[in-house]
Structure formats: C-alpha cells, structure tokens
TrEMBL record:
<dbReference type="Pfam" id="PF05050">
    <property type="entry name" value="Methyltransf_21"/>
</dbReference>
<dbReference type="GO" id="GO:0032259">
    <property type="term" value="P:methylation"/>
</dbReference>
<protein>
    <submittedName>
        <fullName>FkbM family methyltransferase</fullName>
    </submittedName>
</protein>
<dbReference type="InterPro" id="IPR006342">
    <property type="entry name" value="FkbM_mtfrase"/>
</dbReference>
<keyword id="KW-0489">Methyltransferase</keyword>
<feature type="domain" description="Methyltransferase FkbM">
    <location>
        <begin position="101"/>
        <end position="235"/>
    </location>
</feature>
<dbReference type="InterPro" id="IPR029063">
    <property type="entry name" value="SAM-dependent_MTases_sf"/>
</dbReference>
<keyword id="KW-0808">Transferase</keyword>
<dbReference type="GO" id="GO:0008168">
    <property type="term" value="F:methyltransferase activity"/>
</dbReference>
<dbReference type="InterPro" id="IPR052514">
    <property type="entry name" value="SAM-dependent_MTase"/>
</dbReference>
Length: 271
C-alpha cells in the first residue's frame, strides 16, 4: 500500500513539474504564463479523463513565438520532451524547406519546427482521430502545413490501429492497454507518399510512431532523399537492434541517445 501511495505522489510530482516547467520556460507573455500554469493545474485535477477545458496560449522558443491550442495534460509532457529535453538537436540547419512529421500527435513537434524554420512546409501525418482534431486546430495557428490522416509504415493498405481515448500519445498500431479502441486506418509506405506528393527530397524527417519504425525503415530504400532524420526507437515495441542497424548502414553521421524509459532511444542521422 505504501508503495502505491509513493508511486501516486511520484506521478503527481512529475505532472506538476511539467506544468511548472512549461509555464516558466515556454510562456511568451505574463497572460500566457498564467493560462499555462492554472490550465495545467486544472488538467492535473481532471486527469482521470479528458476535461472540458481547452485554451490557447502564446509560447516562445528559438527567439520566436506562436499560438498553441492546449487540450490535455499530456500536451505539457510533450512540450517538456520536445522543447526542454530538446531531442531534435538545437542546431538550425540550412536550406530547410520540406519537413515530414510522422506521428504528428497534436502538433507540438510541428510547433517546434515552425519556430525553428518559419518558412518551411510541414507535412504532418497522424491517424488518431482525437489527435487529428487538435492537430487541425493548431495547424490554423502554425500555417504552411498539410495534414494527412493516415499512418506511414511498411506497407500500403489498411491496418488495425488502437486509439487511446485518454492519451493520444499512447495510441499505437499495437494493442498495449485495455482502454485502447480498435479502428481501421489507411497506411502507406514512405516511398508511396513521396511518389504521390512528387517530392524529391525531405530536408527533415521526424518519426515517433510507436514501434512501427522497424517496418518503415526496413521497407524503404531512398535514404539519400532524407537529409536529416530525428526520432524515437521503441525497443519495447519493435526490434531496436535491427532498426538501428538499418539507419547506421544508411547514415555515416549517426548518433544514439538512451531515454529514461528502458529500451527506448532517440536517434539523429544526417546525410
């Protein structure tokens, strides 16, 4: 029982730290700081299910700022992961005009790239219906974005997708929790997408696709078309050794960073 109580307060502290850190480090102005802090506290108090609260706040990073639509406590966790832990590298690369965001979720990664590359066109891929609603709202604030409501992976056709109604970031092509709801979504290979969109080169490809990365990369041959690649390898959901080996074979400039979660890594690769 004491272990359970301790675990509860550890989770509560982690969530409060999310809210504090995003409010302190990401708010662009005093009003946004107040909205982010008290909105986050409300999300914590209502975290047994999605609350009815939603709001916009202006966030700032890379000496730039933009509105963002907040709808859930997990948004704060994503901000901490993407902006404050900074897995996609703080370096700004030259001549970035085309960005692919695989597993776009609600748009936090798109915001990151928008603030760093104001002129780039962002192609966001997200099959989860709940995430899509928030992503589309944020696209209105981010601009110069195209949203695709299908998964990108190792095949073309239709697959089972397991949407988490409480945590969109936990949705996956694999059944991981009892609360996940099975639905059918369209899936396309990366080669098919490039061909359909008539795109010859991707300047930055970001992936966070909950274990589907192994099939994605095993069935792709056009690595010379991707200049910079960032993403998460879920070793608990796929064969990480195989996935990392494929990327190492195709990128001479390759780096691997272990995450706090066991068997998960961030990778960066450059041509």
């Amino acid at each position: 029982m004491l272990k359970g109580i301790y675990s509860f307060f550890e989770r509560l502290k982690e969530r409060f730290d999310w809210v504090r850190d995003v409010s302190v480090h990401m708010a662009a102005d005093p009003i946004s700081k107040v909205k982010l802090f008290f909105g986050g506290i409300w999300f914590i108090l209502n975290d047994t299910w999605k609350s009815r609260l939603s709001f916009t706040a202006t966030v700032s990073h890379f000496d730039s700022q933009n509105l963002f639509y907040f709808d859930d406590l997990s948004d704060y966790g994503l901000f901490c992961e993407i902006f404050l832990d900074n897995p996609y590298s703080p370096k700004k690369y030259n001549n970035v005009s085309t960005i692919f965001d695989l597993g776009a979720n609600v748009g936090v990664s798109a915001l990151y790239f928008r603030l760093l590359y104001p002129e780039a066109h962002i192609h966001s891929f997200e099959p989860d219906p709940s995430n899509l609603k928030q992503l589309k709202k944020n696209a209105g604030y981010l601009g110069n974005m195209t949203i695709y409501d299908f998964a990108v992976g190792g095949e073309n056709g239709e697959i089972s997708f397991y949407a988490d109604p409480h945590r969109g970031s936990s949705s996956s092509t694999q059944k991981l929790r009892d609360r996940q709801l099975e639905l059918k979504v369209q899936i396309k290979t990366l080669a098919t997408v490039l061909d359909e969109l008539n795109i010859e080169e991707i300047d930055i490809l970001k992936f966070d696709i909950e274990g589907s990365e192994e099939k994605l990369f095993a069935n792709f041959a056009g690595y010379k078309k991707i200049r910079h690649l960032f993403g998460e390898v879920h070793g608990d959901l796929c064969n990480a050794e195989n996935t990392i080996g494929i990327l190492k074979e195709n990128y001479s400039n390759f780096h691997l960073y272990p995450l706090d979660i066991e068997n998960r890594w961030y990778v960066t690769a450059h041509n």
